[in-house]
Amino acid sequence: MKIVTRFFVLILFLSISIHAQIQYPTTKKVDHVDDYSGTKISDPYRWLEDNNSKETADWVEAENKVTHDYLSKIPFRDELRKMLTDLWNYEKFSAPSKHGEYYTFSKNDGLQEQSVIYIQKGLSGVPEVLLDPNKLSTDGSISLGGLAFSKDDKYLCYGISRGGSDWREFYVMDVLTKKLTSDYIKWSKFSGTSWYKDGFYYSRYDEPKAGDELKQKVEYQKLYYHKLGSPQSDDILVMEDKQNPKYGFGAGVTDDEKFLIINVSQGTASENMLYYKDLTYVSRIEPIFDKFEAEYSVVDNLGAKFLISTNYQAPNNKLILVDPKSPAKENWKTIIPETKEVMQSVSLVGGKLFVTYLKDATSKVSVFDTNGKYLYDVKLPAVGTCGGFGGKKDEFETFYTFTSFTYPPTIYKYDVKNNKSELFRKAAVKFEPSAYETKEVFYKSKDGTKIPMFIVHKKGLKLDGNNPTLLYAYGGFNISQQPGFSVARIPLLENNVVYALACLRGGSEYGEDWHKAGMFEKKQNVFDDFIAAAEYLIKNKYTNPKKLAVQGGSNGGLLIGAVINQRPDLYKVAFPQVGVMDMLRFHKFTIGWAWVSEYGSSDNPDQFKYLIKYSPLHNIKKGTDYPATMVTTADHDDRVFPAHSFKYAATLQEMNSGKNPTLIRIETKVGHGAGTSTSKSIDLVTDLYSFMFYNMGLTPKF
Predict the structure, then answer these.
(1) Which of 207, 294, 335, 563 is deepest in the core (most CB within 10 A)?
(2) 371-400 pLDDT per residue, tens
């Protein structure tokens, strides 16, 4: 007992010592005030929005030094990194994709910075490297951002991202020789490529001002066709709208190359318009749906008609058959009607329709014929999340990947004719699933709405209210939160941490109505749902406010910023990551304007009134004892401009009256998250968990 007591006294001493040594950089304040329809709002850290200035660079360097000095003194940090590195070191595969007589898939040997694309003849062939992104940079900062094979499988168009940016550069490879052609596309963003004959369709923006590539607002997207062997300057403009700068254009060509489908969107709003062009003869682009009144997504064509998934008068979605020459609603044929479960995705493979439904945030897969007759369900290995079932309508083989919190991603080969799943590839993770349990609970939010939440922990957990717990959520943009495996979570579970995932309103767990219940003036519902989740975990003796950490990224970073303002007493540790923290100016940068369809805009006086009430930056209260907070962002994040986090962290450091640290961790050559290299992913998780354990007064076991 004496040894244990001395050890914890030492940890307590180190804790007091580290906290006492924190000297935050002096962040200058400027006299800047904005007028929002008569309401004056001060913005003293506006200068941090200039990401090209030396002043901002010096501030970033100073803040990073404080953060790294703090983290470097945590005694178990290196051991935690070693544990994570060891766990991360296993082979990771994607499901194979068939291209003629060949299959392609991605594989990471374990600790490679980026996964490698392989190709093999048949399923039993010898894999060969087709494309290795690790050779594109020395530090793993260049990642792949999309692959598309030509219809004849002779060419591969692939995109790359530099430093995690949303900007894409496209190259074309001759698959047989593995040599690049002369084709090169720049300034594409939020676009894939879709092949047609000897070229492909893609979308791009005008070249931004030099130096502002990661900051400038992107508008007026245009759709082009690029012919192989020609310079980008010769690409054919297919569609644009000079009167509507916020229109986005996406193109897809049906497998039989008979039709071009064009999707027209407005930001992140689910409503869209659809156009098509008959490619079998010289024709014009014609509308199918030319109003933003619902979401429409073409699944495939059956001859000259289109199978379309839509939420028109069906918040949980339905599948219809539409003749594009007479698309009026009275001419629609309902193939699969709406059900109480959300139709999440539909694919046509082997002459059958595979429909993935969401049932209380878990996957259910049902199979129908093309007339909509129900045939059977695909038997899944457990309760969890399923993705895949891609392929062509005349092929009878497909693949899907299944995962859950304690079920590492496992790939199955599926026989369409016989409704038979066969284990294809299983991840060899150093993890024993039987030692843990997952339960789904339903708790009541402030207004009485029932919210689902998954809780994962070691078997035999004592509900004594003293367990360290990490609560994660997102709550927005019609994005569902579903069970999924993460190797990064193993150190938590191994150290008796409870992991909880709350499925808040704003997502798609229960369809468009659930989404709309967390939008615009109803955004407070999302925060209420999260606060109620924390209260549930405390009331039911999973944890207590001194052992509860909360985490969210992007829109989830906004969530964490809002809830620690509203209920700082509920949490010990907070991680607002790459968050939208300035709700009055988010639409001024990069693609931020696209979120006005989710949040509203401060330019609208009525919407300003509710945005100012929860904006994380503007609701930090001086004299408040905030949780131990580590904000994270990255220098190449051109999705959520880093200045959100800069201004938020500076304000939090100024206003916080408590002794808990308020740090910001700013990564380099990393973007919003996608494409982050393996080593930098491990570094981030190491720092997050070290910070969490340390501020809870806990020392993890290794």
Answers:
(1) 563
(2) 999 999 999 999 999 999 999 999 999 999
Task: Please check the confidence at residue 110 and state whether its pLDDT lies above 90.
Answer: yes
Write the pLDDT tens digit of every residue in 650-666. Answer: 999 999 999 999 999 99
Q: Are 222 and 237 within 8 A, CB to CB? A: yes
Give CA angle at 187 (677, 201), nearest 5°.
105
Catalytic residues: 554, 672
pTM of the full structure = 0.94
- Residue 120's CB is within 10 A of a number of other CB atoms, namely 16
pLDDT beyond 70 at 14: no
Is 20 a residue whose pLDDT tops 80? no
49-55: long-range contacts, CB 8 A cutoff, minimum separation 24: 49/589, 49/641, 49/643, 49/646, 49/647, 51/214, 51/215, 51/635, 51/641, 51/642, 51/643, 52/211, 52/212
Side-chain-facing half-sphere of 316: CA atoms under 13 Å: 16
Q: Residues 630-655: what's their mean pLDDT?
A: 96
Mention every residue, 6+ apart, whose C-beta is less than 8 A from residue 367: 352, 353, 354, 355, 374, 375, 376, 377, 378, 419
Give yes or no for residue 421 having a pLDDT over 50.
yes
Q: What is the 3 state secondary structure string of 254-295?
A: CCCCCEEEEEEEECCCCCEEEEEEECCCCCCCEEEECCCCCC
> Two tokens at 91?
């082979």
> Is the CATH number 3.20.20.70 carried by domain 71-86+431-695?
no
Element (H, E) at 226: strand 222-227
**pLDDT tens-digit series, residues 670-692:** 999 999 999 999 999 999 999 99
**For residues 254 and 233, what is the distance between their CA atoms, to the nearest angstrom?**
26
Residues of the chain with CATH 3.40.50.1820: 71-86+431-695
Cβ-contact 314, 304 below 8 angstroms: no
DSSP character string of 198-219: TEEEEEE-PPPPTT-TTTSPP-
CB-CB contact of 579 with 616 (8 Å): yes
